[in-house]
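Sequence of Arginine biosynthesis bifunctional protein ArgJ (Humisphaera borealis).
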Amino acid sequence: MAELHLLSPRGFRAAGVYCGIKSTNTPDIGLLVTEPGATATAAFTTNKVFAAPVKVGREHIASGRLRAVVLNSGNANACTGKQGEADARRMCAIAAELASVRPDEVLPSSTGIIGHMLPMEKVEAGIRNVAQYLGDSMEHAHDFAAAILTTDTRRKAAAVEVRFGKEKVTIAGVCKGAGMIGPRMAVAAGGAPGVKASAGKTKSLKGRSATMLAYLTTDAKIAAPALRKLFSPTVDGSFNCVTIDDHTSTNDTAVLLASGVGASVVGDKDLAKFAAALDEVCQSLAYQIAADGEGATKVVVVHVRGAANDAAARAMARAIANSPLVKCAMNGNDPNWGRIVSAAGLAGVPFNPDKATLTLQGTTVFKGGRPVAFDPEKVSQQLGVPEVRVDLACKDGKGSGTVWTCDLSKDYVTINADYHT
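Predicted 3D structure, token representation.
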């Protein structure tokens, strides 16, 4: 069986090329095109300082229909004022011309350094060039995925097939993200929010913007309102549950496009089945972001159960995952459970530590408000693996949640002290 990829769903073509924005001579312009009648939904950063392509993207997704995504890496086009917005619209116009669609059917994305104007001469030439190479092979999918990378060390992709009666539907996706990762995205519903992009001073914001971007494709036929409704909980349970440094980017974007050339997905049962498959893809992508965190040596999976509700569980898991002390302990294979319990207590949600149990890699280290005797050397060895599990069982309710993160190493500091490209 052929390996699934971003373009395995029918009705999509893509490509990625180098246009000269990045200094690494790797793809930095990407274009993804789909069929007439395709439906779409998207989630964007909730940071009040948001990039020009986010502003334009919110407007263009309001109709629930897209025909193309055009993107660049190496420059975030954030904090660039009216010219930045004009440049984002220009990207859409050029892509629309080449794809024979309307400009408002194109969603733009950018990732890279904040506070620098796009080199539009290179960008325009790049878009015209990439349009010549559109195709639906795995190589085309890989080139598109490479075009969104910045400090990432590898491409990130996932795909599944699901059957609806005799017909098969494919859901696939690619994403990027390694630093400036603490997504808090909201699905755009019926138009852009009434928030204007900041045009003020940007000196304190200049620097890196690694960003989380995700592009998902499916050949299912789903009405735009249904697509939007199911995408919101998917984003909350996947991309919004990954954190590297808890820094929400100006450019975070996740887009789901349904070409409509495959099986129709209607009715609660089929929509739930589709949503479960979409969750699987997005959670895999979120995990891959954590695994590729800047300077990371391991993934840390934080699971909380028995919280007041699911939102409380995620808040506790996120508080643990974002603690620099916890992340440093994970890097040093140090079973310093006090850092974990105290971080959970800072989440701002109901939590009774006297009724909680904490386990590290399956070894109980804290229970009922007291330490539990364990072999520190043995647990330290258990922590020295590529994936570490931190499980906190509470008795405050029935909520559960998982957050994916990574350890904090010296390399993270080096990368972020040196990065300005």
